[in-house]
Amino acid sequence: MLTLTWPVMAAVLVGALLHAAWNALVKSSGDKSLDTALLHLVGSLVALPLLLIVGLPGPAGLPFIAASVVIHIGYFVALAGAYHHGELGLTYPIMRGFAPLLVALGSGSLIGETPSLAAWAGVIGITTGVALVGLAHPGEALHHRKALLYAFVNAGIIALYTVVDGLGVRAEVATGGNALRYVLLLFVLNGVAYPLLVWSRRDRASRHQIVAYARQRWPMAALGGVASIGSYAIALWAMTRAPVASIAALRETSVLFAAILGTLLLKEKFGLQRAIGTAVIVAGVMALRLG
């Protein structure tokens, strides 16, 4: 029986911190879409030699990886649209916060896992807390309808690839493989799509600037790429040990860690709303453990 134990929970929280760390790096940059693309590209270059060492995943996981790559193309398109029409601080919490709720809603029919009452309380608590922490000015969100549309669509896409990858990594492990092989091949393949999308949307002059920008920012991208790989590897490994909906919700505590990092490193205000959101997230985490 799949159970969310304390060690698995601790590992996922570490993964959430890694996820928040690379997003904080992106948030601190002057060109968020370019830094995101650079991070994914360098991440794929980091993943490639590791993949050659650990080996390719088995046949059982390959169809899921192929499906995930296609879904991720939609994710990157929606991500670019969300960041084009709205700020990271508006769109990111919506995309990351509502995805676990959608995973929980679909997990019964798609995965055969029905969350308990306590698990449902945890998922809803974390979703609500993430929204409170991330959306510092919720009234302004209504003025960015296109950004909201892209963000909610991407929440659905994130939920979809979470379920696909959860099933895929379980199939890989069940046939003698491991989560790391699955994640590394996924990162190698996904590391090309978003950079090509960003490149295609820049004019000739901007493309020359991209090369110069990449030379300056590649150390940041390397750190972010390693953090991103580690974060998702932990999450997918955890999905072989615990219900997918619980791991998906727990992973999005990264929004809280991002807010804390933003306060400490970027001198952003934390405020009463984020404090309340933090308390709600902690309560949700405890409910997940009890569930």
Structure characterization notes:
It is a single chain. The protein has helices at residues 6-27, 32-54, 62-85, 88-110, 117-134, 145-174, 179-200, 204-238, 244-251, 254-265, 271-290. Helices cover 81% and strands 0% of the residues. The longest helix has 35 residues, at 204-238. It is an all-alpha fold. It is built from 11 helices and no strands. Helix 1 (6-27) packs across helix 10 (254-265).
The overall average pLDDT, rounded, is 87
Beta-strand content: under 5%
Q: Helical region count?
A: 11
**Form type:** globular
**What is the terminal separation in angstroms?**
13 Å
Number of beta-strand segments:
0
Q: List the quaternary state of the chains.
A: single chain
Number of domains: 1
- Computed Rg: 18 Å
Would you tell me the structural class of the helices and strands? mainly alpha
- Runs in which pLDDT lies below 50 for 5 or more consecutive residues are none
Main sheet makeup: none
Order of helices and strands: HHHHHHHHHHH
Percentage of residues assigned to helices: over 70%
Structure at a glance:
It is built from 11 helices and no strands.
Give descriptors for this structure.
291 residues; mainly alpha; globular; 81% helix
What's the SSE blueprint?
Blueprint: H1 6-27, H2 32-54, H3 62-85, H4 88-110, H5 117-134, H6 145-174, H7 179-200, H8 204-238, H9 244-251, H10 254-265, H11 271-290
Helix pairs in contact: 1-8, 1-10, 2-7, 2-8, 3-6, 3-7, 4-5, 4-6, 4-9, 5-9, 5-11, 7-8
